[in-house]
Amino acid sequence: xxxxxxxxxxxxxxxxxxxxxxxxxxxxxxxxxxxxxxxxxxxxxxxxxxxxxxxxxxxxxxxxxxxxxxxxxxxxxxxxxxxxxxxxxxxxxxxxxxxxxxxxxxxxxxxxxxxxxxxxxxxxxxxxxxxxxxxxxxxxxxxxxxxxxxxxxxxxxxxxxxxxxxxxxxxxxxxxxxxxxxxxxxxxxxxxxxxxxxxxxxxxxxxxxxxxxxxxxxxxxxxxxxxxxxxxxxxxxxxxxxxxxxxxxxxxxxxxxxxxxxxxxxxxxxxxxxxxxxxxxxxxxxxxxxxxxxxxxxxxxxxxxxxxxxxxxxxxxxxxxxxxxxxxxxxxxxxxxxxxxxxxxxxxxxxxxxxxxxxxxxxxxxxxxxxxxxxxxxxxxxxxxx
Length: 386
Fold this sequence. Notes:
alpha/beta
């Protein structure tokens, strides 16, 4: 494992993860769809925003606390759902849950996770949300929702931007479908990248190799194989009509993830959104979608306080969190940022990623002359171009 304490920023954790993981595993997290235009645009939008600081104001201990859907968080950062983190490290989602709880944060579990949702919920003393795909059909999804409710998850995150898996060309170049398949001959051309990472390979084999998806239990078939996810996404994609039966099973808060326009945000409100995540799936679905930070002000204005606004996509530094809050978000979700930490050093790596964000936030709020994240508003920034 890398010495994650030496990581100064998220880019350092990314490089540590790249050195430890097989190319197919690293690129699964790191890459985007097609030409990766949206992946780059998410970062470019943050880079275009400039600050308007209040100079010479003494801010000693800025208050990072925020309340999201009745959860008190130590800072406005939420660990996003990332599919099958168990491939990056055997502890996977459990390591993320423990690190989030230790930091006073919220963690969201993906349907496509390597550990049972009950184990994830038991791993954290803090709040937890469950992110829903309809993999395996309505009966399988309904069973997962019921399990999440019984386990004590406090919100259901419904992802609205996945009707088919995006064209992630890195995965095809790296032979990811072949490596997940059963044909040994098909795997052979892609095995050198795996053999080149013996530390990861030993951990992977000790963990029992590729596990089925414990939270997608298809009636009569059992847990779904990981290799079937892309096909099943196409067969079982979410539509707004599904909200009628989902609401019958889940009485709690609904968070819709994937809004990129005021129209879709209003549609989320029509279906009872408690919160809306402005998200383009980290640039992994429809390439040339707009950067989330660019559409955030439009969506915040359309929602106008009727639901809480969250944002993900491209968040790598504390200044990114500040910029998102100034432009209308209550908090941000980080995915790749903590996944790099997990790939570099397990739970310690996730904790280091979280610590980097906290340190960044404290330093930059002091430099801005802002005593609290709750005091941030558009007057502190010059927004990005549309």
